[in-house]
Design goal:
Helix content is about 35%, strand content about 20%. By secondary structure, the chain is α/β, with parallel strands linked by helices. Strands 1-2-3-4-5-6-7-8-9 form a 9-stranded mixed β-sheet. Helix 4 packs parallel to helix 5. The longest helix is centred in the N-terminal third of the chain and has 21 residues.
Amino acid sequence: MAYLADMHIHSIYSYDGQMRIESVIKRGLELGLKYLAFTEHIELDQITLKQVVNRYKCYCEELEILQEKYPNIKLIKGMEVSNPERHIDELQTLNNLDLDYILGSNHLLPREYSKKEVLLYYKRILQMVKNGGIDAVAHLDYIRRRIDEVILPIGIIEEIFDTIISNDMALEINSSASRRINEFSFPNDEKLKLYQQMGGSKVTIGSDAHRLNEVFDNIENVSQKYDFNKGIYLKRKFISCK
């Protein structure tokens, strides 16, 4: 079955988004999509919780109006929370909001190529999944945007995957790698095979679109390549697209 969803999109409600929500919806309908997840950036190192909640209210009001206007495509209310392991109390508040989907991500990229820095990057992700409060891990090896990680000890990835599986989370396959580093996806093929070998099955797929021409970018190819239990989230529940 075709994966007719994009589970990682940033509109103008994200600091770097360049798309109005209605424009994304029209593009999604042109592409024949059934689901669009607006996962607006939450950068708690740069914005207060009160500001987040106020922005969320405006964002939800617009989504609800547009959902009535466009009933043939499901609009998913999401957030991408940067480094939630650093903001435990704030994350608890976000979990009390009427959200469909929370992505957790690590945007603290190393500035130098060293085993210590690479390991620290993944230790942050490990702490994030151990703490919980998120539904899926976004672009696991986003670090590859900046450095080669051939020195990565495989054990840390295994521990992350084991925790994701044990905590019944999903792993995001992020198709933006095709336009950012000319590779197929984040995580790369090696890590996705390891995830599958360890018993991981639940995945979401997202384009990480910030511009209109990036919506659903390469998702069809990614979906066809990997045999996982591909799904979406509604009301914080994983729904398989099989």
